[in-house]
Amino acid sequence: MTEQEEEILIQNEFDALLRDYANTAHKQKVEIITKAFRFAKHAHHGVKRRSGEPYIMHPLAVARIVVNEIGLGSTSICSALLHDVVEDTDYTLDDIEQAFNPKIASIVDGLTKISGGIFGDGASAQAENFRKLILTMPEDIRVILIKMADRLHNMRTLGSMAPAKQLKICGETLYIYAPLAQRLGFFKIKTEFENLCFRYEQPQMYRKLEEELKRVSPALDDSFHNFTAPIERQLNQLGIKYTMTSRIKSPYSVFHKMQTKNIPFDQVYDLLAVRIIISPETPEREKSDCWLTYAAITNIYRPHPDRTRDWINTPKTNGYEALHVTVMGPEGNWIEVQIRSERMNDIAERGIAAHWKYKTGEHDESDLDHWFASIKEMLDTSDLTNAVEFMDTFKLNLYASELFVFTPTGDVRKMPTHSTVLDFAFSLHSELGFHCIGAKVDHRLVPASYELHSGEQVEVLTSNTQHPVIEWLDCCTTSKAKAQLRTYLKSEIKEKTDVGQQMVEAILMNAHQRINADSIQVLTNHYGFRTKEDLYYNAGAGTIDLSDAPRLFQTDKPGKWTRFWRLQFGSTDKPSEHIHRTIDPKKDKSIDLTDSELGTTYRIAPCCNPIPGDQVLGFVDERGTVIVHRLDCTEAEKLKASFGNRIITAAWKTQKLLSFRASISLTGIDRPGLLKEIVHVISDDYNINMRRSVFETNDKIFSGTIEMYVFSAEDINNMCHKLMELKSLKEVKRIE
Question: Is 369 an active-site residue?
Answer without folding.
Answer: no
